[in-house]
Amino acid sequence: MFDTVFQLPPTVYGGQHLVTAVPGDGIGPEMLEHVKSIFKYVQVPVRFEEIRVGHDIDTAECDLVIESIRRNRVALKGNLETHKFREGYFSKNHYIREKLDLFASVTRCHSLNGVPT
User: Fold this and answer.
1) 76: part of which helix (H) or strand (E)?
2) What's the pLDDT at 1?
3) Is the C or the N end of the chain the one with fewer CB within 10 Å?
4) What DSSP element (H or E) covers 18?
5) Distance (Å, rounded) from C-alpha 29 to C-alpha 70?
6) What pTM, to 2 d.p., does this model score?
7) What is the pLDDT at residue 58?
8) Ramachandran bin of 69, using left for φ above 0, alpha for ψ from -120 to 50, beta for the remaining angles
9) Are strands 12-13 and 16-22 parallel, antiparallel or unpaired?
10) 10 sits in which H/E element
């Protein structure tokens, strides 16, 4: 099916997994802070390699994000704002997905009893 693919081992330092964290734009930075506080509270053995990029980055900066994700093999990424109505439209989200061969976007949704939706 597939030829043997070389995969880097997960990055672990002192018993903690290193996770690439890309807050992105919008509510991403705030959400990442909440995730970090929850992980700290429940003592998840994770350290975050935080890469602060936004909608104004170029492909070279996207490549740094991709390099970190490949090295750590796991990432939390917020959405990067896309200006698709501007001249020279370039979606950084699509670029990153394409370079990492990620073509599925899965969002799990759950209804909570008592919460109107």
Assistant:
1) strand 75-77
2) 41
3) N
4) strand 16-22
5) 22
6) 0.72
7) 79
8) alpha
9) antiparallel
10) none
